[in-house]
Amino acid sequence: MPNTSGGDKGEKEWRSVSGNRKNQGKTRAGNTRAVAPNGFDDIDEPSMSLDMVAEDSLNRPLVFAYYVTGHGFGHATRVVEVLLDCGAVQADALTVDRLASLEKYSETAVVPRDTILATEVEWLKSIKADLVVSDVVPVACRAAADAGIRSVCVTNFSWDFIYAEYVMAAGHHHRSIVWQIAEDYSHCEFLIRLPGYCPMPAFRDAIDVPLVVRRLHKSREEVRKELGIPEDVKIVILNFGGQPSGWTLKEEYLPHGWLCLVCGASESLDLPPNFVKLAKDTYTPDVIAASDCMLGKIGYGTVSEALAFKIPFVFVRRDYFNEEPFLRNMLEFYQAGVEMIRRDLLTGHWRPYLERAVSLKPCYEGGINGGEVAARILQDTASGKNYTSDKLSGSRRLRDAIVLGYQLQRVPGRDLSIPDWYANAENELGLRTGSPTAEMNDDSFRMPIPEDFEILHGDVMGLSDTMSFLKSLSELDAALDSVKSPEKNQRRERKAAAGLFNWEEDIYVARAPGRLDVMGGIADYSGSLVLQMPTREACHVAVQIIHPTKQRLWKHAQARQNAKGKGLTPVLQIVSYGSELSNRGPTFDMDLSDFMDGDQPMSYEQARCYFARDPSQRWAAYIAGTILVLMKELGIRFENSISMLVSSAVPEGKGVSSSASVEVATMSAVAAAHGLNIDPRELALLCQKVENHVVGAPCGVMDQMTSSCGEANKLLAMVCQVPASLVISEFVAGVCRQSKSIDLLP
Questions:
Q1: Rounded distance, CA 531 to CA 714, Å?
Q2: Shortest CA distance to 489 belongs to which of 420, 539, 427, 541?
Q3: Closest Cα partner for 111 from 89, 87, 153, 139?
Q4: Which residues does the UniProt record annotate as the domain GHMP kinase N-terminal (predicted)?
């Protein structure tokens, strides 16, 4: 946030702090090393600026103390030793170490908290700060309150939201960290909320501003001329902020005639001729705007610049980076995002993603002057202006608290989902900063079976959810034609599903319900009586077996097969509905030959490692694992390709057996498609093996047994006996000894 010189007052100063109070450099005109919006990897000039001298009504220079968090702030973290918070600790370029992050924060900000507060309060008073601005260091808000100084936060996420999931998954003994951070934020007067925001109930009020984007210095033509790149050459900028370790870039990664500009490459990195290493001091916004697409990981800086400059963004998901779903939602809503599977990034299958990206037409038309708007708000606040409280601040905080509550109750390993009704509201300027709220249409649940859909075997049994699923299947063929003219709010998963099936071949559909625990709980581990009841909510799976020559392959799967040079071989393709707003990929594909180790199916241990390679696609183990279990336990060999569509209404992570319903529905559909007659009890035991051995989750058998054998409006009683060979140090699942149905009393 620079100053300008003017009038007879001479040079004006805005003082700033970047995480570390010791580096309290004065921010003068032309010197911008300390202040920039959260998430930018390179800082050349700040995005929040004023075209006037920062003075109050008495022409007194205003003094700002600006605290910047250490994480995701590439340039600042290289020159600043952060003492007030630590952000998130990354295990590698794509993975956050949750437990290490909590332990580091405790060491950095919890243990020395009293000393930090005393030091900061004394310093803030000594410089006579008019306003404390935090992005988003929690303790800065409390220090400002203790010093009697107003404070404002500027951000799209807060650390209580980020750490909440870390606490649930990796360190319950650190739970007090979340409450302390929220308490610190509550001392902030209001929040300047950036687009793509997460739920932040700790803040009393929020003011929405447009995108904060770094300004361009040069035109596209000027940048290409300086780099010596003709206008007709396609450019992808690799903007990773740190590449995965041991990664080697190869010439064949790019389509013919393309160039890749690499940001942040080490001096020792050898690049092929179609990769160009950018200088360390390159101003990346200019290069991004001069490129045809960008490849990297999602962060506020990359997303905001992709939208502002209308540059398609090919992104790879990061593990446990909890603000990502909200930014991704905004990116994809404006037709600017293409997701790349991590294994394709690392193995160099880039071509189909890059070609898809350049076919997009990003359509963000909102404001990009958020820096100027925020700077004006900060100046007015420092001068004594009181902003009117948001009339709906109570409902906003309740809405945010509910979504944060979902986060706190999430079972480790489940998905971070955004409820359909949680959408970024229009800001005070009338500019929409995110996607619209999804509309629910109950009419679909009362629709009859589509006339153009012939049921060859079985019965829908009057189940409205099954009829709705069949209706959605019948609409996919028409949806395929509309994919070529995309709508802004069309879901990626629906686009993938539209090209999944060959409509000249049979499709097999199976339904499996969730499970409500009435009595017994986890007693199926120890041999006790349990009473379980199927839920109304269920999972539907549609399966098609088809010869490889007739299967509709996704472009990246086709590119992978071409690279192997063995012609068309059987491929498994899966689309999972309900994942477009969650932290997992909506699609999964693999060559079925990957399940083989020589002439035998791979071991379960090998399978667990296979699916664990990319956490964003680990969910596929519940579905694809059914195929491996059938191969190993029943000796089945799959010589044709398999396409699957999964749609589940069973709530995930709420203890109602969402995973068991997926496993049972999938195996039932696969068995029917291949003419296998498996009785319900045996099918349940096979599905338990999927969860125990392929997914690696210890569970008894009551979940799968209820989903497979249960009847509507009836309790299922089971007495489960643990084998005598049970070893304490190793999990051995219980075996169902007896089952029967009991009429549910009115």
A1: 10
A2: 420
A3: 139
A4: 622-710
Cβ contacts of residue 300 below 8 Å, gap of 6+? 37, 38, 39, 40, 72, 156, 194, 196, 323, 327
| Residues shown for the chain | 746
Cα-based distances in Å from 283 to 117, 149, 150, 217, 398: 37, 36, 34, 8, 41
| CA–CA separation, 699 and 655 (whole Å) | 12
**What is the distance between the alpha carbons of residues 139 and 706, in angstroms, rounded to a whole number?**
50
The pair of structure tokens assigned to 77 is 């973290």
Q: Which residues fall within 8 angstroms of residue 219, CB to CB, at 6 or more apart?
A: none
pTM for this one?
Answer: 0.68
Phi/psi for 302 (5° steps) reads -65, -40
Q: Which two tokens stand for residue 93?
A: 């370029």
User: CA-CA distance, 663 to 638, in Å (whole number)?
Assistant: 18
What does the mean pLDDT of the chain come to? 77
Classified as helix, coil or strand, 55 is strand
**Cis (ω within 30 of 0) for the bond into 694?**
no
Distance from C-alpha of 379 to C-alpha of 128, rounded to nearest angstrom: 15
Structure tokens at 730: 């190793």
Give which of 81, 78, 181 is closest to 136, Cα–Cα: 181
68 cis-preceded (ω within 30 degrees of 0) = no
Strands 529-546 and 641-648: antiparallel
* Torsion sign, CA atoms 112, 118, 121, 124: negative
CA-CA distance, 557 to 546, in Å (whole number)? 16
CB half-sphere exposure, 356, CA atoms < 13 A: 24
Residue 163, amino acid:
Y
Average pLDDT value for residue range 63-85: 56
Amino acid identity, position 192: I
Residue type, 672: A
SS3 315: strand
Contacts of 75 by beta carbon, 8 Å cutoff, 6+ apart:
33, 36, 40, 41, 42, 43
Q: Which two tokens stand for residue 595?
A: 């399940």
Lookup: tokens for 280 = 């360390």
Q: What angle do CA 12, 16, 18 make, to 5 degrees?
A: 155
Q: Is 703 a catalytic residue?
A: yes
CA–CA gap between residue 241 and residue 74 (Å, rounded): 7
Quick: pLDDT tens for 571-596.
Answer: 999 999 876 545 667 889 999 999 99
Q: Contact, 181 vs 145, CB < 8 A?
A: no
Q: Give the 3-state secondary structure percentages of the chain, helix then strand then coil, rounded to 5.
A: 35, 20, 45
Q: Which of 400, 599, 703, 743 does the annotation list as catalytic?
A: 703
Closest CA to 704 of 744, 673, 667, 742: 667
Nearest Cα to Cα of residue 643 among 539, 508, 538: 508
- Per-residue model confidence as pLDDT tens digits over 266-298: 777 889 999 999 998 899 999 999 999 999 999
Q: How far is Cα 546 from Cα 197, in angstroms, rounded to an integer?
A: 43
SS3 644: strand
Residues linked to residue 541 through DSSP beta bridges, in sequence order = 510, 646
- 27: number of CA atoms within 13 Å, CB side? 27
SS3 label, residue 640? coil
Query: What element of type H or E holds 596?
Result: strand 596-597
